[in-house]
């Protein structure tokens, strides 16, 4: 059976995920400053708290960080001109408006280059010489 955390331990763990500071998180969770200064790291050593923090960080990481598929899809969208960006355009009189624009030729070229590197479309030219070993029988028959 999995051990449950107290509400204060839960608050500590959630705060620690946000701040990365054990002492500050302990105080925000309701522990006294004296306790937090001397024992906050002990809370991190609690296996139930540590497991909860690790699981939550893994969940957050998977949601926040682009995976390989997402990066490749984005680069392809830029290359094909489907990704749009914004640009400020002057309208006169010191005013500006936001305008949606397609990727520039430079952006498309960079996307193509990165995709090409990923799929090894371009390889470095290497000169390979055909070297065939030659065996010379120069060992005397007495040996």
Automatic annotation (TrEMBL):
Which residues lie in coiled coils?
none
> Superkingdom of this entry's organism?
Bacteria
Q: Which Pfam families match?
A: Terminase_2 (PF03592)
Task: Give the UniProt record's GO annotations in the biological process aspect.
Answer: chromosome organization
Keywords (alphabetical) are: Viral genome packaging, Viral release from host cell
Protein's UniProt name? Terminase
To which species is this protein native? Virgibacillus pantothenticus
Q: Lineage of the source organism? A: Bacteria, Bacillati, Bacillota, Bacilli, Bacillales
């Amino acid at each position: 059976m999995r051990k449950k955390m107290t509400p204060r331990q839960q608050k500590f763990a959630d705060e620690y995920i946000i701040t990365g500071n054990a002492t500050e998180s302990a105080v925000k969770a309701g522990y006294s400053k004296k306790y937090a200064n001397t024992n906050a790291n002990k809370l991190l050593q609690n296996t139930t708290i540590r497991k909860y923090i690790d699981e939550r960080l893994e969940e957050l990481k998977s949601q926040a960080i682009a995976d390989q598929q997402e990066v490749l899809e984005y680069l392809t969208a830029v290359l094909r001109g489907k990704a749009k960006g914004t640009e400020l355009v002057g309208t006169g009189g010191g005013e500006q408006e936001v305008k949606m624009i397609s990727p520039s030729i430079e952006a498309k070229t960079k996307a193509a280059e990165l995709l090409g590197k990923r799929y090894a479309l371009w390889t470095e030219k290497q000169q390979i010489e055909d070297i065939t070993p030659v065996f010379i029988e120069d060992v005397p028959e007495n040996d």
